[in-house]
Design a protein that fits this description.
By secondary structure, the protein is of the alpha+beta class. Helices cover 34% and strands 34% of the residues.
């Protein structure tokens, strides 16, 4: 009887240790909102910032001569051009909302961390996104703006009118007139440049997740330099990401998220290398 009790206690201790290890290393602890400052002259609530900054609801991010990317729930990337101002209206995990007061943003939504959709608004526009890439450019005249879609499609509501915008299409409002049309060659080049920037920011997000992994797991795949080399090969489509993940004996959410981001990078790189883009 005494041996049985000791065995039960040992088993419980093992279960607790395994649970602690899982929660600490393999369950992704998601940051609700953070800012990656890509180049200087970026403010949060009128305070100059640099590096990586955690954000909270109602924070105002403003770029002057700098570039920065907002990361929501480690699922949504909002790349701010220079002279852009946005505020975090709502940070609900499943349905975050952002208000763009001025300037240009390029938005990339990947389906991880439980986010279902994302809403970007201006004074007269609502863009609802459920997994795509799109840009919103505000003109110099109040009320003028342009929306561009880089993949899939999004729903726009402009002055009470609903639009569905497909890949490589544009809807713009100039001097009160709303028009949906195919993107011009200049606009397609803009989309291409923004996608290239998003690739860099996806790599940044992936690295944040890799840093959460335990050293023992990372050491299994070599030095940091060797891991980065393998990731670069994967990004170029030379490694089957699903095949690598399938070799793990258990389902690890954090590794699945890293794999998802890598496949997004692969997809964008393939488009960027397509001469018919």
């Amino acid at each position: 009887m005494k041996i049985v009790k000791i065995s039960i206690v040992i088993l419980l201790i093992i279960i607790i240790i395994v649970l602690i290890v899982y929660l600490k290393f393999f369950k992704s602890n998601v940051v609700d909102a953070q800012l990656h400052v890509e180049s200087p002259e970026v403010n949060v609530n009128n305070i100059p910032v640099s590096g990586n900054i955690k954000l909270k609801e109602n924070d105002i991010v403003e770029t002057s001569n700098g570039l920065a990317t907002i990361i929501l729930h480690e699922s949504i990337l909002i790349a701010l051009d220079k002279n852009t101002k946005v505020s975090l209206s709502d940070l609900k995990n499943k349905h975050p909302k952002v208000f763009q007061e001025s300037g240009n943003t390029w938005n990339k939504f990947i389906r991880i961390s439980g986010v279902e959709d994302y809403t970007l608004t201006t004074s007269n526009t609502i863009a609802s996104i459920r997994g795509t890439a799109f840009g919103l450019i505000q003109g110099n005249t109040p009320g003028d703006w342009k929306g561009l879609v880089g993949e899939n499609e999004i729903d726009y509501n402009i002055d009470g009118h609903d639009f569905i915008l497909e890949k490589n299409y544009v809807v713009d409002k100039v001097l009160g007139k709303i028009e949906k049309r195919p993107a011009t060659s200049e606009e397609l080049e803009y989309i291409r440049k923004q996608n290239a920037r998003i690739v860099s920011e996806l790599k940044y997000l992936r690295q944040l997740k890799i840093e959460k992994l335990p050293d023992l797991l990372k050491e299994k795949y070599g030095t940091d330099q060797e891991i980065q080399q393998k990731l670069e090969e994967a990004d170029q489509g030379k490694i089957d990401v699903d095949k690598v993940i399938s070799k793990f004996p258990v389902n690890l959410p954090l590794l699945n998220e890293i794999a998802k981001i890598t496949k997004e990078i692969q997809s964008l790189n393939q488009e960027l290398n397509d001469k018919e883009y």
